[in-house]
Amino acid sequence: MECVVEAVSSTRKKLVLSLTAEEVNAAINATVAAYRKDLSLPGFRKGKVPVSVVERRFGEEIYSRATQDKLNAAIEKAIADNNLTPLSGMESDNSSAFKRNEPFSCTLSFDVLPDIDFPQYVELPVEQTKAVATEADRQEIIDRLRDSLADLVDVTEDRLPVDGDVVDVDYSGVDEAGQALDDVKGEHFSVTLGQGQALPDFEALVKSAKAGEEKTGPVVFPADYAHAPLAGKTVTFTIKLNSIKSRNLPEVNDDFAKKVGSESLEKLEADINEHITASKKQAARAEAMQKLLDKLMEGVSVDVPEGLLNSRIERILGERAMRLERMGKKLEDLGKSQDELREEAKAEALESLRPQVFLMALGRKENIVVSDQDVEMAIYTMAMRAQQDYQKIREAYQRSGLIYELRDRLLADKAMEFVYSKAVITEKEPEEAKA
Questions:
Q1: pLDDT tens, position by position, 398-408
Q2: Number of folded domains that form the chain
């Protein structure tokens, strides 16, 4: 069998395989023998079925298996002999199976990681912000916990609503021609003011009314509003403020701590401190890693494999189309040609893929391996965070081919962890601590 590896580009290889008719017959005979070994058919003892009967009965299946087995063996040998690491599924120009007494040839194309002239990536100096929990950080979490346990109390004094109040509102709207809008109408709409739960103009209109009063005024909808018919429109709202409730916040003491699941106020404060420190440490670590990566990427040329790039472009366009669809729009509504949209997606894809490919190549250089267990743990973590079924997410990744992209990302992450572990880290005080 003849096997030739050709370079299509710096990131794409071509494997040309050729088998003579004699080699094809030998591969088919080996597969027939494997079938015959454990085969039982009526009238024949196990393993004694004539070769001609086996091939006649299972011909197509045997020829397909013989082709796959022979090609897989040839591919594995070529990859090992030439020190190649395919990144994508191989594309073949011949999908037919072996036929007796006929030669066979095919060309397989696939992406590989580029050769990169790596700069120094060990013992790189980097500053990392020290993880310090400040009083402001602790107070912010305490305030959120108090807010979650607040009691709502009817406001009986004669006043306008303010940020933090919970209001009950009836509303309706008309367009610029004075026609009533069916999709701008509601009763007993409850909203907490000052938290961005409603449009700014709507909140301002509500804040101009006292309990029991009606007010009318314009509300401008943003151009990217999720409900397409209202996007960019100005609607005249009439609101009636039914009631105002204020939030009665609990005192911060041991009883408060127990209500949020802690043993005491002292234990709650210790847990909050630990949580803040851990979060800041993780953020500081990520920031230091980004500094290291930015430094490594300075002046480095990285060719992105074509298959990887095209796959990422399609995903970016697909996600953009889904976001627009939720707003009742399509990609065509952006007023750009398909070429323009694709160029935008390409620029976005290259921005994220260049450092990823760099790190993947570095990972290969350092013999860093992504195990099946690493992949399973990553999918499990995603499922837990999204509160979705692990098996369903796993099957979706396998079915869509995203499992390969996940492996690529995990390899890049491990390579970045390696660079960070070898860096010379200097801790610096955070700005808020200095102040």
A1: 887 788 888 88
A2: 3
